Please model this.
Amino acid sequence: MAPGGLFWWVGAGVLVVLELLSGTFYLLMIALGCVAAAIAHIAGAAADVQFAVAAVVALAAVFVLKRSRFGRRTRKEASANPDVNLDIGQTLSVPAWHERRARVSYRGAQWDAELAPGEPEDAQTYEIIELHGSCLVVAAKRPATHHVDTR
Model:
C-alpha cells in the first residue's frame, strides 16, 4: 500500500516540531525530504519513488547544510569559552610576577595566575582568558576603543 500524502505532511510536521526543540537544523532538512515526497505523491509517484525522493532530497539538504556556515559550528574549548565559564573576561590586578606566574586574590580566594604567552608583566589590569583547573590564564587588558559616530 502506498503511503498517502497525509503520511508525509504529518512526518514533516513532527520533524519541524522536534527541530524546534533541538535547534540543529538537521531535522528540518529531513522534513524537507518529507515535503518533497508529499509533492511526489501529489504528482502520482509510486511508494518506492516517494521514499527515494524523500531520501535523496533529505541527504542533499543535509549535505548542503553541512557545507554551509550553519552546519559548521565552531566549538571553543570549555576552558576558554565565556558561555561555559563566567570567569572568562573578568578583570583582576596582579601585584607581582615571578617567572610569569603569580598568586592573586580573585572572588575572595587565592588563585594561581599564569601570564599568557607574549603578554607583558607591567600592565595595570589583566583579563582572564582561560582557566586551567584552578589556574587563571591572564592577558593584559587592552583599553576599550570607543567608536564615535560623526553623522
